[in-house]
Write a structure and sequence with these properties.
The chain is an alpha/beta fold. It is built from 4 helices and 6 strands. Strands 1-3-5 form a 3-stranded parallel beta sheet. Strands 2-4-6 form a 3-stranded parallel beta sheet.
Length: 150
């Protein structure tokens, strides 16, 4: 069969011509431009749909974007009573050692607090120390070093 003007068709899967909305009533898509009457979705920019409540992200299993990450590290309190249990006499108390013993999570820094009794000499290196804890460490014969020595 020969191809003539009356039997021309677009190829299978070819794109259809975009329907031009809002070009007057003679076009067949004038007046309300297929948007109905009034309401949020009849306005420009009103077809936001699932984006409104984050449903689209939830359906697509995407993470939420937003918020901020604090520049300050999170502090975890470690009491001197705990140091008494986990450390030997004369041992250094460092951030790495506290993590190794499972007393701290990753990404958290520590502050030594003064709850409990300390009977061992410990050397606290590079950690924040409360005033009460400092008194207890010094009275037990220990020291607090601000920076780690090599």
């Amino acid at each position: 069969m020969a191809i003539t003007l009356h039997n021309l068709k677009p190829a299978k899967g070819a794109r259809r011509r975009k329907i031009r909305l809002g070009r007057g009533n003679a076009s067949g898509r004038g007046t309300y431009s297929t948007k109905g009457q009034k309401g949020q979705r009849a306005r420009s920019g009103g077809r936001s749909g699932l984006k409104l409540k984050g449903l689209k992200r939830r359906l697509l299993n995407l993470p939420k974007i937003g918020g901020f990450k604090s520049k300050y590290s999170k502090l975890a309190g470690v009491n001197v009573g705990v140091l008494n249990e986990y450390f030997k006499d004369g041992e250094r108390v460092t951030l790495a050692r506290l993590r190794q013993l499972g007393l701290l999570d990753r990404g958290v820094t520590a502050k030594i607090l003064g709850d409990g009794e300390l009977k061992k000499k410990v050397i606290v290196v590079g950690l924040k120390v409360s005033a009460g804890a400092l008194d207890k460490i010094k009275s037990a014969g220990g020291t607090v070093l601000a920076k780690m020595e090599k």
